[in-house]
Write a structure and sequence with these properties.
By secondary structure, the protein is α+β, with helices and mostly antiparallel strands. It is 37% helix and 21% strand. The strands form four sheets. The chain has a nine-stranded mixed β-sheet with strand order 1-6-5-4-7-3-2-8-9, covered by helices on one side. Strands 10-11-14-12-13 form a five-stranded mixed β-sheet, with helices on both faces. It has a five-stranded mixed β-sheet with strand order 16-15-18-17-19, with helices on both faces. A hairpin with an 8-residue loop joins β4 and β5. The longest helix has 25 residues.
Length: 631
Amino acid sequence: MTLETGHIQVQTENIFPIIKKFLYSDHEIFLRELVSNATDATQKLKKLSALGEVKGEIGNINIEITIDETAKTLTVSDKGIGMTADEVKKYINQIAFSSATEFLDKFKKADAGDKTNIIGHFGLGFYSAFMVADHVEIVTKSYKDGAQAVKWSCDGSPSYTIEEVEKEERGTDIILYINEENKEYLEQHRVQTLLDKYCKFLPVPIQFGTTDQTNTVGEGEDAKDETIQVPNIINNTNPAWTRQPSELKDEDYQDFYRELYPFSEPPLFWIHLNVDFPFTLTGILYFPKVGNNFEMQRNKIQLYSNQVFVTDAVENIVPEFLMHMHGVIDSPDIPLNVSRSYLQGDPNVKKINAHITKKVADKLQELFNSSREDFETKWDQIELFVKFGMISDEKFYDRAKNFALLKNTEGKHFTFEEYTEHIKANQTDKNGQAVVLYATNADDQDAFIQAAKGRGYDVVLLTNMLDNHFINQLEGKLEKTSFKRVDADTLNNLIEKDETPESVLSKEDEDKVRNIFTDSISDAHVSVVTKALSPEEQPVLITKPEWMRRMKDMAAVSGGGGGAFGFGNLPEQLNLVVNTNHPLITKLLSAEAAEQTRLTTQLYDLALLSQNLLRGQKLTEFIKRSVGLMN
C-alpha cells in the first residue's frame, strides 16, 4: 500500500483548535479516553477468543503506557483486536470524529453553568488526544490472519495520511507528540497520578514502567537474593464490587475499603449493590464513622462506568443525605454526555437514586433486627445521616421510623414507639400529650436534668446539628407527642400532681419576692415568676420559652437571622423562676434592702451561670462578689 492522504470531512474550517480552546481546563481526561479505548479493544479480543474466532493463545494482553522524554512522546499500546486500513478510515476518520463534533455541538448548546459538567464525560474518545498533542500517530495491526499493519498520522489539521508499515504483534499503539504547553504529561509522576485516578480498577492490566522485585535464587547456604525488574501493574483488575456478594468475606470488603481510603478508620458496615434490571448498577457503599463531622465526609463516593472512573461529584445520583457515605458505584446506564439539568430528569438516575435509598434503609433494618445491641453501639456514629434522611426523604422516614433510636441520659436506647410507651404514665400533660423532655448538652444542663429526674421524669439526649429540625418533624409525625427542652419554661407545668408542694409563702409575700427580684435585675428581657418547688431544688432557675429558643436554634443552624421573621436577631427571652419553698427565699424577705439587692443579684448570676449566659464584665463582677461573700 502506497502512502495515502485524505481529508476528514468537517463542517468547521478546523475543529482541533476549537477542541483545545474549549477543553483547556480538562485536558487530563485524554489519558482516560485512550486507555479506555485500549481496554475496549482488549476486551473484544478476549470475547472473540472465547467464541473461538481467534486462533491460538492470545498471550499477554497488558496495556502499556510509555514516555519518551527525548522524542517528547507518550504512547498507549494495547494487544487488542487492532484495525485494518479500512477500519482505521471507518472508526477514526468517520465515527470517532463524528463523536468529537457531536460533543462540540452539545458543548456549544449547553448553558454556561453546565459546560464544565459535560467536559470529559466520554464522547470525545480518540480525538481528545489533540488536546495535548500537536501530532498523533496510530500504528495498528488487526488480529485477522494475514492482516497488514498500517500507520495513520495527523498533525491536528483535517488532513491525514495512511501508509503500510511493519508491526510484529497485533494491537494498536497511539503515539502522542506532546506539545509544549502540555509537557507535564511527559513527567512520570503526573502520568502515574492520572492512571491512579482514572484507571485504578480497569479490567485489563495496565503497565506503567517497571518495579523492583526480590527473588531468592538457589537453596541452603548457596541461596541468595537478587533484584529483578518486573512490569509495574497499576490497577486492580478484579475489584470487590465486580464480584458476587457470595464470593466475598468481611475481610475482602475491609481490604477494599483500605485500598480506596488508606488512611481512614475502618467502616462500620457496608452495602453491596448488584442490580441488572431495570437498570445496571453495581458497587459497594460503606458507612464511615461520621459522628457530628458531617460536612468533611462529602465527595467520597466514586462513580465509574464499566470500571472507568468518571467523577466523585455524584449529586443527584446518590441521595443528598447519603453523600457522606464512602465507596464506589458503577453504572453504564447513567448518561455522561449531558448537562446536569438533563441528568436530574433522567429516569434511570431517578430509579438508581431511589434504589440506593431503599437498599440503605433495608440494610439498617437488617442490622437492627439481627443484632440490636451492636446496632445501638453504632448509633452515635450514624444517627446524623439517619435523621438527615428522615427529614429530607419521606420514603426513607417511613422505613427508618422502625429502627431510628432515642437515647436517654442513662445511655438506654428506645425506638419512637418504645419511648412514648416508656414515658406515657409519668410524662403525659393535662391535654393527653406525651411530653418528651430532652437535653442538648448534658453538662451544661445537668442541674435541670437532675431536677427532672428528681421528679421521676426521663430525659433524652438530642445533641446534634439537625435535632432542632428533627424535633419539629417528629412532633408532626408522632401522634399526641410534644418535645420540650429540659430547661424550658413549661417543665414546671408538665403535670399537675396532687403531691405538688404548696408554697410556704403567702400570696402577699410571693408578690414581694417577685418585686424584689424585678427591681434588682432591671432587665426588660427577663420575666420573674414564682413557683412552689421542692426545698431541695435550686432557689432560682433560668428557663427559656420553648418556641423562641427553638426558632433561634433553627436560625443559627441555617446560618442567618431567621429568614423573613428575623428570629435569629431577637434578643434572648428568659424566665427567672424563683422557688418560694427554698430557705434562701424566705431569708430574703427578712433581710435589709442592701442585703436583698446583693442576695438577689448573686442568685440571678448563679442562675445565668448555670445556663452559660454569664460572660464578660458581669462574670468578673460575680467572681469578685463571690470572693467577698466568702470573706
